[in-house]
Amino acid sequence: MPLFAYKALSSSGGVQTGEVDAADRPEALRVLDKRGLQPVSLKESASAAATAKKKAKEAAPAAKAAPAPKSSPSAKPTLKAPAKSTEEKAPEGPLKLKRAEVIMFTEELSDMLAAGLQLEPALKSMEGRQELGGLKDVASRVRQLVRDGMNFSTAIKRVSPSFGPLYCSLAAAGEASGALDEILRRQAHYLKTLAELQSRLILAMIYPAFLILAGIGVSIVFVTTLIPQLTTLIESTPGGKLPGPIKFMVTGSDFLKSYWYIILIVLAAGGLFFKAWKDNPANTMAWHRFKLRAPLMGPVVTSRFYVQFLETMANLAGNGLPLLRALELSRDATQNLSLRNELNTVIDQVGDGRAFSKALIRTGAFPPLLIDMVSVGEQTGKLDMALRRAAERYDKELDKSLSRIMALIMPTILIIMASLIGTMAYLMITAIFQTIKNLGA
């Protein structure tokens, strides 16, 4: 069995060196883990490797000189099943997590890293937490990959798709800058804000959804029952004529009754066509540009990009990363392709020696206030602080935009439903009065 020379940190913080017998490198890592040691370096001992080669050379001539045993005709061959290692496990697929579990994992890990723990001991500590439930499996698998030399961002991407490309890109930026705990803390805050927004949106949409369902029910009753009865009543009276709007509604009612399935097929086909168009790589850029210019969605997407970009840049620049490398990592964490192209332009100009604020002006995609704050940070030599203040400002703008949208949802739906039902009621009352007038004449 080969020997592995190791250098590791003990639980008391001291450095230990020595050798360990193991079949391979992963087993050696497991042995050190059981001893409570965190490996700093681990490699096969040179003396052990030389000894193994020497024994192999000595065993080769002996194996050639030894005569092969003859098997008797009556002897039956025996088949030996290959030995299975107790450590061997069936391949495991990616784990799917809920958003609440991703938030809990991020908060736990960021807290332990901020407290001074290294990444692997922090993940090991999460494995022993009973209240984490299924997250223990995620922590265990991520720790195994990290212990084998894989980056944390790559490990979480392989273990679970629930983290998403943005999360993994920000984790990679945190590893590069040495501020993984700060990046994870801000990412947990962002995920919690997003979850809170979705819960607020769901709660705010309960009453409008009830109004929409009630309005649809009333409209169906009007179109299928009341309007046909009223039409029959008007046509049976002497000189009764249907008003123009009533005729239009009757025609629409007949059309819906006769061709409702065609309407559903057309709507489904339109939805599938739009999804196929949106997912086509040739149209992805146009769709991302539209999201930036949409009436209500555009300001939210833009403000969210500013907050994410400024916070990421502030963390990277504050931890001593060069400006060009910080811009590249921030670009990789941007999901909108149109904005990513703008950042490519900024990176090219900064690489050519232009100032960061001047490069932002050249793109035309960044507001003057943001550029002014960046310029002040460049002049004072405190770019990270200027970026962080700008991020806080645009975070407030994002919250205002979301609050404005939430405030507009309720009155908009109320106005639409009131207009629809009020128009139907007005037309029916007008038709009834016209019928009464005809009967009186």
Computed structural class: mainly alpha
Q: What is the strand arrangement across the widest sheet? A: 2-1-3
Provide the gyration radius in Å. Answer: 35 Å
Distance between the termini: 113 Å
Poorly predicted sequence stretches spanning 5 or more consecutive residues: 62-91
Tell me the number of strands: 3
Strand content: under 5%
Mean pLDDT: 77
Query: Helical proportion?
Result: over 70%
Name the overall outline: elongated
Order of helices and strands: EEHEHHHHHHHHHHHHHHH
Secondary structure tally, helices: 16
Report on the architecture of this protein:
The structure is a single chain. The chain is mainly α and 441 residues long. Helix content is 73%, strand content 5%. It contains 16 helices and three strands. The protein has helices at 25-34, 46-65, 99-114, 119-127, 135-147, 152-159, 164-177, 180-236, 244-279, 281-293, 297-318, 323-332, 337-351, 356-363, 368-380, 383-440, and strands at 3-9, 15-21, 38-44. A three-stranded antiparallel β-sheet has the order 2-1-3. Strand 1 and strand 2 form a beta hairpin. Helix 3 runs antiparallel to helix 8 (180-236) and helix 8 packs parallel to helix 16. The radius of gyration is 35 Å and the shape is elongated. The chain starts with a strand and ends with a helix. Mean pLDDT is 77; it is low at 62-91.
